[in-house]
Automatic annotation (TrEMBL):
Protein name: GNAT family N-acetyltransferase
Residues that bind acetyl-CoA: V83, G84, V85, R91, Q92, G93, V94, L95, S96, S119, E120
Keyword vocabulary terms for this entry: Acyltransferase, Transferase
InterPro entries per record: Acetyltransf_17, Acetyltransferase_Eis, Acyl_CoA_acyltransferase, Eis_dom, GNAT_dom, NAcTrfase_Eis, SCP2_sterol-bd_dom_sf
Active-site residues, record numbering mapped to chain: Y124 (proton donor), F407 (proton acceptor)
Superkingdom assignment: Bacteria
Family of the protein in this entry: Belongs to the acetyltransferase Eis family.
Domain N-acetyltransferase: 1-150
Subunit-structure text: Homohexamer; trimer of dimers.
Family matches, as SUPFAM superfamilies: Acyl-CoA N-acyltransferases (Nat), SCP-like
Length: 407
């Protein structure tokens, strides 16, 4: 079997092959209103698995993204996508061969982070990926949707003086692109949406051509600083694809608009950030039902010193990490030193504070999973008292990571 790169001439064959493992066809309409997401594929980053007799039996690809790290750091990240093996060739080492080839290729391009969305949670940990951001679905019955008014007033919770304008998706493409791009630059865990995606309408709403209403929030100066894309998905259910907001005031204003919509029985927020204060703003705390609490973005570190030095930190300290990468047959020990919010990570022979798999390092990297949780779960081994607590403090993020982009 050969793993070979793809090019633009392979596009049709690539699209046909990547659909076969899922028993779908490229011309089948997406159930969720998504567009032809594969139209944005970067064919110079794809791989084919080809048998000795020339049959194409597997695919994988990657997008060129920026990932926002804690501390408002923008880092290049490869977005792994289109991973599949024909049912006739599964469990024969094809997937492992493609993933190993891809990781080697990504390193060769100088990339130090790789991310993906996992179709099945049991697949990608063995390749060094760990779940790093999470998302939820929030359902609020319309008759219980009243919001409370804040009791304490301050700069952060001052009454919203902006406005909400209702548009149709076809009327506001450039506006959505601009607002999302400003949002993702300060939200840990967020991925860029290259202009190519918006131009091709590739992906899920509100990028796709599916008809949607869009509530746009403007600040007191009339500048757009948030939006919510929504539609009536089933009788009397208003489903919100995503809510983007520059701050809590804009989010609350958009939520108030959505929750106050007439002629619906419930409002469903498909991508609700864990720990978001909206549930506390409901007059009836029990009105908000959380379901589908699940992982979203998975992260893999390809160059540990570069990755750990890149993100921002909010406390000082030193930590020695002994990291095993079984899939690539590597093991390294690294000293992470943070002084005045600046980090340095170098190989060391000092005794480790923590021993962990590279997939667990991916899980804690953005601050969405605490190292102490993984110590308690038996994933990470702490070698001295206080090591897990120090790791929690070091890997903490100023904002909980959240990713909305689907790829």
């Amino acid at each position: 079997m050969e793993i070979r790169p793809t090019n633009d001439e392979d596009f049709d064959a690539f699209v046909a092959t990547l659909h076969a493992p899922f028993a779908r066809f490229p011309d089948t309409p997406a159930e969720d209103g998504g567009g032809a997401w594969w139209s944005a594929l970067e064919m110079d980053r794809g791989l084919f698995a080809v048998t000795a007799d020339g049959q194409t039996v597997g695919t994988t690809g990657a997008y060129t993204f920026e990932l926002t790290l804690p501390g408002d750091v923008l880092a290049p990240a490869a977005g792994v996508t289109a991973v599949g093996v024909l049912p006739s060739h599964r469990r024969q080492g094809v997937l492992s061969a493609m993933m190993r080839h891809q990781l080697t290729e990504l390193r060769g391009r100088g990339e130090f982070l790789s991310v993906l969305l996992a179709s099945e949670a049991v697949i990608y940990r063995r390749f060094g990926y760990g779940p790093a951001t999470y998302t939820q679905r929030l359902t609020v019955p319309r008759h219980q949707a009243a919001l409370t008014l804040p009791r304490a007033r301050g700069a952060a919770d001052a009454p919203d003086t902006g406005s909400v304008e209702l548009l149709r998706r076809a009327e506001c493409g450039e506006l959505l692109e601009e607002v999302y791009d400003r949002y993702r630059r300060t939200q840990p865990g967020a991925l860029s949406r290259p202009h190519r995606w918006w131009a091709l309408r590739a992906g899920q709403p509100p990028i796709s051509p599916a008809p949607r209403y869009v509530a746009v929030h403007r600040d007191a100066d009339g500048v757009p600083d948030g939006y919510a894309s929504y539609s009536l998905t089933e009788p009397h259910t208003l489903t919100v694809d995503e809510t983007i907001a520059a701050d809590d005031a804009a989010f609350t204003a958009l939520a108030r608009f959505l929750l106050g919509h007439d002629l619906v029985k419930q409002v469903v927020f498909k991508h609700f950030p864990p720990g978001h204060p909206l549930r506390w703003q409901l007059m009836d705390f029990r009105a908000g039902e959380i379901t589908q609490d699940t992982d979203w973005l998975w992260v893999r570190l390809l160059d540990i010193p570069r990755a750990l030095s890149a993100r921002g930190y909010f406390t000082d300290g030193e930590l020695v990490l002994d990291v095993e990468d079984a899939f690539l047959g590597e093991r390294g020990r690294y000293l992470l030193s943070v002084r005045d919010s600046k980090a340095e990570c170098v190989p060391t022979d000092r005794e480790p504070d923590l021993s962990l798999d590279v997939s667990d390092l991916g899980s804690v990297y953005l601050g969405g999973t605490t190292p102490s949780t993984l110590v308690r779960a038996g994933h990470i081994r702490a070698h001295r008292p206080g090591a897990a607590g120090l790791a929690d403090a070091l890997f903490h993020s100023d904002r909980a990571p959240h990713c909305l982009h689907w790829f």
